[in-house]
Amino acid sequence: MPSAKSTPAIRYRIVPIEPQAHLFEVTLRIAAPDPAGQVVSLPAWIPGSYLIRDFARHVVAIAASGNGRHVALEKLDKHTWRAAPCRHALEVRYRVYAWDLSVRGAHLDNTHGFFNGTSVFLRVHGQDDQPCRVRISRPAGVRYRGWRVATSLPGAGAPEFGFGDYQAQDYDELIDHPVEMGDFTLSSFDAGGIRHDIAVTGRHDADLKRLGADLRAICATQTRFFEPRSRHAPMSRYLFLVTAVGEGYGGLEHRASTALLCARNDLPHAGMKGVPASYRKLLGLASHEYFHSWNVKRIKPQVFAPYDLDKENYTRMLWVFEGFTSYYDDLMLLRSGVIALEDYLSVLGETIGNVLRAPGRKLQSVAESSFDAWSRYYRQDENSPNAIVSYYTKGALVALALDLTIRQRSAGKHSLDDVMRGNWRRYGRDFARDLAGLEEGGFPAEVAAATGLDLRRQIRAWTEGTGDLPLARLLAGAGVKLALSSATKGGARLGARLVSRPGGLEIATAYSAGPAESAGLAGGDLIIAANGLRLDLTTLQTMLDRRRDGESLRLHAFRRDELIEAEVVLAAPPPSEVKLIVDDRAGAPAKRLRGSWLGTPRGK
Ligand SMILES: [Zn+2]
After folding, report:
1. Do 400 and 534 belong to one domain?
2. Residues 6+ apart with CB under 8 A from 261
């Protein structure tokens, strides 16, 4: 249906109608509904988070009208409605309950509002590619007078950071710009030729100047990475939406923004020296989501171009899109000078250790883990470490192995960076115009195209196989020693991951064939005593430190409400503590390779 540019055929209005009841009211006006009966639906999932969430379950009331008259709505399935045939413009009005304080949903109370388009905007079937307009309205009442709006949605009359009209070229764009409203704090910086804004919601005492300076360095480094010539970011503006809470962690990528959830104490404070681990983790998260602006938002797996929002979209390549992004997120902190080399090597060592600690890596490949993300990685339980591998962490190590291999085989002429830039040129730059994406199984060909190397055999073994990656050898070739030892902290020698709970220690996971499992203990059991003494993590550690492997410990635990007793024979777990050490005695080629791999960090 052609429509004049000034009056899009699809218009939404969203009002935080009852903030105290967590209700948004949305009115959707369709100028030219399908004469056979217009179908509308809410997405079953939000791109970037691979789990069926059925957002339509939060629609608490819905009705339709045309020309002032009621139009019947028939519900076709859990998230789809069809309006009776209507010869006039169709208006669908509905209320959405918003009480999910996560980066994936919608949240509203009298302190702020947040929503993703996937939670609130019905998709108009058959008109997905039509431009649309959104009016974001201020809640009624004096207490909301100071509220502002933060979103990367292009304005269509709304003042900057104000309520009013915004627009999107199509539905895909509409749902890719989350919206925050409230009395957030704002700061901004320029990088990659564009303005970046940081909006922080929630109580906090953050040093936004420090945060802005560090993010600026990271964003500029990433932009230079993908666009070494133009050094221009692929969007015209970028927004970091940060929600600070007591405890929390999460991020979701979008084409021109990211929603981040963090603990308020992870934010930098005035006078802070260095980079504490908690802040480094937050910077790593921001770096990760920003890297996604290229890798997954614009360079996509073919099955995501376009997304099918009604059901699972299966790809065996999340190791490329999440794993490689995880490799580069920390590496970019180093390359931008935000963290020092020792910090980077310690983080990388932790990632290697995390992968080695999970017995599931022997049962599942990263390609399988990608495919099963919907039912396994996103739905973890006490057995997950025994049964699955993370396409994030092992995917990051595949990137590392590939990067070092390419550097060694090409004598420093090429690197994984060239592959990423090749993917960007081939699939990413034209994202808006051409929906082709990286085809399943197409990655080795991209490596060959960018580097001239045939690494099909290695990539197949590392991504379709379950063997450990040859990291010690590859790192040695880059002048870095990998030292491996057994973990001794926590419940390591019990073969269990333990979590402190009131009254005892809960077994989060009893590792496959480990001492706890062999003694009959299981995930969910609450250990209350060891050798007849009440215990917490500290007293347990002391007991373990005073005993040798092969000796036993008598544990009392509750399984549900039943007391059980187990004699656990202590044993050192397989080595999984990893230290990466710069080898000063490495040969000149290894040192050269290390220099080109880890850049010339300025350090801090
Ligand atoms: Zn990610």
Report:
1. no
2. 101, 102, 103, 242, 243, 245, 248, 249, 250, 251
